[in-house]
Amino acid sequence: MPLAAIAQFTSTNILAQNLKICQNFIRTAASKGAVVLFLPEASDYISSSAEESLSLCQPVDTSPFVLGLREEAKKYALAVGVGIHEPTADGLKERVRNTSIWINGQGEITQRYQKVHVFDVDIEGGPRILESRSTEPGASLTPPFDTPIGKLGLLICFDLRFPEVSLTLRRQGASILTYPSAFTVPTGQAHWETLLRARAIETQSWVIAAAQVGEHNEKRRSYGHAMAVDPWGTVVAECVEEKEDICFAEIDSQIIERVRREVPLKRRFDVYPEV
Q1: 157 assigned to active site
Q2: Which keywords does UniProt give here (predicted)?
Q3: Which position among 157, 238, 239, 247 bears the catalytic label?
């Protein structure tokens, strides 16, 4: 069975340091026999302000972070899914794109998804984050695509709260859903595992969620607990401590086939419209 590596670490505003950590993850994953590595949302950087984010954001063709990952992925023939920031197409430098890119084992960027649901939250006594002020929301889903572990659908963090998008990707053929994330501590403690398991159960798919963890700056702290959940809703791998870490999951396609055969979900689109 193909082996997937799922990582968590603490991005800062120092891109070179973040790159070094991610390159080390690639080497570790390859040494353990993994065929794919999943890295968190915003692996390139987490800034302390929208202005700083704009100043750090670079196109993938010139970003030392992305170029460094591509080189290392090619060197170790390891596919890498990673969350990054990209400039918007209009070039106005007012907002950035929050995207997930897929780098294949030849070091090529073959897929890209721009986060559709941006994260606006104002929790009493907790964090206040208005991602919509600095991040341009995406306008479409990326169709599932073939990978060394199966047909994969790309989603990001706050998308986790919207089952419609995961169900859409399932109907399009996905057997694996990914949620690279930077969940806050309060929302992570309350909802992270529950939502990941729910998405796995209702889509009867593998769910893989790399995660940011720990204190990025004085304004931001992430929950961590990167994990993989099988189509029955069982957590099969998890980074349980609040530190840089990596866990591994064997992606068994037979579990998908068995669960979907034994508990067929035949939706009644004659009764309710397709979402």
Answers
A1: yes
A2: Hydrolase
A3: 157
